[in-house]
Amino acid sequence: MSHITCVILAAGKGTRMKSDLPKVMHQLVGMPLIDHVLAKTQKLGIKDIITIVGHGRDIVTDHIGTRSDIVIQEKQLGTGHALCQAAPKLKDDSCVLVLSGDQPLLSLNTLACLLEHHQLSGAAATVLSAVMEEPYGYGRIIKKDGVFQGIVEEKDAQPEQKEIKEINTGTYCFQGHELKRALQLIKPQNAQGEYYLTDVFDILLNSGHKIEVFRTKHANEALGINNRCQLAEAEDLMYDQIRKDWMMEGVTIINPSTVLIDPQVKIGKDVIIHPFTIIKGTTIIAEHSVIGPSTRLENCTCLQACHIENSVAKDAIIGEDCVIGPFAYLRPGTVLAKGVKVGDFVEIKNSNIGEGSKVPHLSYIGDSDLGKKVNIGAGTITCNYDGKQKHRTVVGDHAFVGSNTNFVAPVTIGKDSVIGAGSTITKNVPDNSLAIERSQQKIINNWLKANDN
Ligand code: UD1
Ligand code: CA
């Protein structure tokens, strides 16, 4: 097998996306299109990767970082012109795999089969084709008596050519030397006035070279993202596959089409996911947890048998047997130990909540450390911000905090202490004590009568 160089075409404006963002930076199942393509080249073990950038090049180049060499296409004069920019970097004796940045669904298996077919056949070029029920917009594979004759673009096709359902996926393998020679000869003589990469095939055929068409059975994988409808279609296909994979691994998903799970998420068996739930980023959900309905988790770790309902959590760790929601909001830095309850309309941020503690209703707990078996009464607020800096609130094990308490941080509450309802606590409270801060209740008898007239 010869050395493989992969060239990813990603310089186009993506005019049909009608967007300020370069096309390859649009998100698909939680990551930009270009990441899907790069991840595949890495999984194929290809070390030599060149990405052609142009439109929005700074954003794309920054995003790619060290994952690929970058070559700039100053003006976007077509796919052939794009590949030409990389020609000086291509070795004569290498196999050049060309991928499009806007084709994220091609599977590893399809690409590996294409590479194998190309290398075994000894062809100068191999084009990956697929049969599409609705081929509109794609280049068509022209054959005569079953023999490949070339590729014609939709805009240049004759009416009878538009009937052809075998399309060019835009993914190819080339013999390095022959590719470089042919690229020099392409001319922008077509309906779009562009340098078409697909014209390389005519040139190679005319000089008597062997060209292979490798047809994949998985036409869905060939979907190219040119507009937002195709982006949504690709996303539907990917989410559907992810859900099916998890269901086959023992996860119950109720009304699956309403549940979105990103590719890096990990889920244990016997987890139940209720409708309208979105699980994003690097979230991990351990066995026997019940998530949703209407819950959004992003980069969270949920240990065994958590119950989370109608809630939002980001960058949070949720311990075993925790019960969250409905309507809780766990913000970054929240760490809940085993058996914590966080109830309705509670927000927690950058705080550790000890084993078996409860924050059941209407509270804000920020920058705090709560011990074990603490009970926080309804409406309790940590006043963590003095207008300049954030301060911590510490509450010892078994403390009982009455409803509507304000903790003005920094403040420390000792173990086994009780805070009277309605107190604004500004000073530390020792262990085993009661702190109460409110004015004495007055009773004025016959108040209404005394104020008559
Ligand atoms: C291309 C193919 C078409 C194929 C289809 C598959 C050509 C002429 N046509 O059409 O046969 O069916 O893909 O999806 O190749 N790009 C650049 N620089 C440019 C122009 C494009 O880097 O100057 C990049 C784009 O960013 C994109 C890729 O090349 O990632 C394909 O370009 P696009 O304009 O989407 O080509 P299609 O019209 O889809
Ligand atoms: Ca395209």
Give a structural overview.
- With 453 residues, the protein is an alpha/beta fold.
- It folds into 2 domains: 4-222, Spore Coat Polysaccharide Biosynthesis Protein SpsA, Chain A (Alpha-Beta Complex), CATH 3.90.550.10; 250-435, Hexapeptide repeat proteins (UDP N-Acetylglucosamine Acyltransferase, domain 1, 3 Solenoid).
- The protein is 19% helix and 30% strand.
- Strands 14-17-20-23-26-29-32-35-38 form a 9-stranded parallel β-sheet, with no helix packed on it. Strands 5-4-1-6-10-7-11 form a 7-stranded mixed β-sheet, sandwiched between helices. Strands 12-15-18-21-24-27-30 form a 7-stranded parallel β-sheet, with helices on one face.
- The protein starts with a strand and ends with a helix.
- The protein binds uridine-diphosphate-N-acetylglucosamine and calcium ion (CA).
- Calcium ion (CA) binds at residues 100, 102, 224, 226.
Short description:
The chain is 19% helix and 30% strand. With 453 residues, it is an alpha/beta fold. The protein contains 9 helices and 41 strands.
Which parts are unreliable, with pLDDT below 50 for 5 consecutive residues or more? none
CATH class of the largest domain: Alpha Beta
Strand content: 25-35%
Distance between the termini: 104 Å
Relative helix content: 10-25%
Radius of gyration: 31 Å
CATH superfamily of the largest domain: Spore Coat Polysaccharide Biosynthesis Protein SpsA, Chain A
Mean pLDDT: 96
Please tally the β strands and state the result. 41
CATH topology of the largest domain: Spore Coat Polysaccharide Biosynthesis Protein SpsA, Chain A
- Ligand set: uridine-diphosphate-N-acetylglucosamine, calcium ion
Shape: elongated
The description of the largest β-sheet is: 9 strands, parallel
Number of domains: 2
